[in-house]
Design goal:
The chain has two domains: 91 residues, Pseudouridine synthase I, catalytic domain, N-terminal subdomain (Alpha-Beta Plaits, 2-Layer Sandwich), CATH 3.30.70.580; 137 residues, Alpha-Beta Plaits, CATH 3.30.70.660. The two termini are 33 Å apart. By secondary structure, the chain is an alpha+beta fold. Strands 1, 2, 3, 4, 5, 6, 9, 10 and 11 form a nine-stranded mixed beta sheet that branches. A two-stranded antiparallel ribbon has the order 7-8. It has five helices and eleven strands; from the N terminus they run E-H-E-E-H-E-E-E-H-E-E-E-E-H-H-E. Helices cover 22% and strands 29% of the residues. Helix 3 crosses helix 4.
């Protein structure tokens, strides 16, 4: 039976960002948010406003984007998931839907976010992986990359490792870091309360530069103190994934 009371509804969404101009809706360009709104409009026959946790950039993927919305009427979660996934493109999927408190906000109630960056070390990546890894063609010093990653722990200054920062806080405490290698895939995980524009891609680019010898550990350390010039090393978006959102 349908319930006419609007209840705050949370959805967990995953997507392949390759063919989208980022998350946030843009006129005349395909975006993930635009596709979600289109699907909701088709189901409810009206425009639905959504709130969301992260505004991922063009080409960035997500395993755990969070949105909330107030539906005009109630549809059981399994049916709503099935309906949304039947409308959405194959590169976007709703994984879970549940009710949350009326005052829950997916942006302001965030405790931290976990991002993952994946490199493919040596050789040509298998066809099925090419949209999700950055191929590093030259031999890399992974030990040096690990040393660079270790420098990130704790409170650091990221104004030289991000963009569009005017008037924004760039001193950020990195909660945890991890690097692991499985066959040819090198994976870097970083968890922090928030990330500035292109910050994770700059980190990934600088770690790769450390591995290739294009950047010294000393210079990278100074950049994390806000000393020097902005980072020229920006990793491609395809290797980046918003993995998980942690709430307070």
């Amino acid at each position: 039976m349908l319930n006419n009371r609007p209840l705050n509804t949370l959805a967990i969404i995953q997507y392949d960002g390759t063919d989208y101009f980022g998350w946030q809706i843009q006129k005349d360009y395909p975006t993930v948010q635009g596709e979600i709104l289109r699907a909701l409009r088709k189901i409810y026959s009206k425009n639905i406003e959504i709130k969301y946790t992260s505004r991922t950039d063009r080409g960035v993927h997500a395993a755990g984007q969070i949105i909330t919305f107030l539906p005009p009427f109630e549809i059981p979660a399994p049916r709503l998931i099935k309906a949304l996934n039947s409308i959405l493109n194959d590169d976007i999927a709703v994984l879970q839907i549940k009710k949350v408190s009326a005052d829950f906000d997916p942006r302001y109630d965030v405790d931290s976010k976990l991002y993952v960056y994946r490199y493919y070390m040596g050789g040509l990546p298998p066809y099925m992986l090419r949209r999700y890894v950055w191929q590093i063609k030259r031999e890399s010093n992974i030990s040096m990359m690990r040393k660079g990653l270790a420098l990130l722990k704790g409170e650091k200054e990221f104004k030289l490792l991000s963009s569009n920062n005017e008037g924004r806080k760039t001193n950020i405490e990195i909660i945890s870091t991890r690097m692991q290698k499985s066959e040819n895939i090198l994976e870097v995980r970083i968890r922090a309360p928030f990330f500035r524009t292109y910050m994770m891609r700059h980190i990934a680019g600088n770690l790769a530069a450390l591995g290739s010898g294009s950047l010294s550990l000393k210079k990278f350390s100074l950049m994390l103190e806000g000393i020097g010039t902005p980072s020229p090393f920006l990793a491609p978006a395809r290797g980046l994934e918003l993995k998980k959102i942690y709430f307070k």
